[in-house]
Amino acid sequence: MPKGYDQVGTSDVTGKYSVTHHDAYVYVKIDRNGAKATIKNLTHLNNAQKQAAEAAIDQATDLNTMNQAISTATKLDGDMGDLQTAVNQANEAKTTNNYLQASADKKDNLNSAVQNAQAVLAATGANDSANQVKALTKSVNDAVDALNGDSNLANTKKQADQNI
């Protein structure tokens, strides 16, 4: 097989100008540069994640393995986008009464979850897997959902009304 190509098919054929049987092969060039360009164009991966994806492309021995590396990186890019969205929503939540009137432990949990997520989202972040990124996203979303400022405010108003 020629270097830099992947065999994707073969068959036994009879030659047009001879009656002998011989093999016919179909080759596809492995385009590592195109694959790396795809990785570079992903917008949410941090540097470590991009480097790992490019290394997987370099180590791929066939087209299927290389395509799987691209697919894995693309899926992780989407997961990182979901994490960024969760962080953005959490930061918006910090401007609401639900956060401002929340219990200190609820605020701390949200702040901690956002801080952990931002560490991965940073360009210098670690090469976290899709499962780790999904867990961080869930942690941020759960911390937002757990805020109890609205109920605290409602309880305070109720008590104030009862005292009048």
What does it look like?
The chain has helices at 32-40, 47-59, 63-93, 97-100, 104-121, 130-145, 149-163, and strands at 5-14, 21-29. Strands 1-2 form a two-stranded antiparallel sheet. Helix 1 packs antiparallel against helix 2 (47-59), helix 3 (63-93) packs antiparallel against helix 5 and helix 5 (104-121) packs antiparallel against helix 6 (130-145). The chain has 164 residues and is mainly alpha-helical. It is rod-shaped. The N and C termini lie far apart (89 Å).
Fold topology:
Elements: E1 5-14, E2 21-29, H1 32-40, H2 47-59, H3 63-93, H4 97-100, H5 104-121, H6 130-145, H7 149-163
Antiparallel strand pairs: 1-2
Helix pairs in contact: 1-2, 1-3, 2-3, 3-5, 3-6, 5-6
Strand content: 5-15%
Strand adjacency order, main sheet: 1-2
Indicate the percent of residues in helices: 55-70%
Summarize the biggest pleated sheet: 2 strands, antiparallel
Structural class by helix and strand composition = mainly alpha
- H and E string: EEHHHHHHH
Q: Count helical runs.
A: 7
- The rounded Rg comes to 27 Å
Shape by Cα distribution: rod-shaped
Poorly predicted sequence stretches spanning 5 or more consecutive residues: none
Distance between the termini: 89 Å
Total beta-strand segments: 2
What's the overall average pLDDT, rounded? Answer: 88
Question: Which properties best describe this structure?
Answer:
164 residues; mainly alpha; two-stranded antiparallel ribbon; 7 helices; 65% helix; 12% strand; rod-shaped
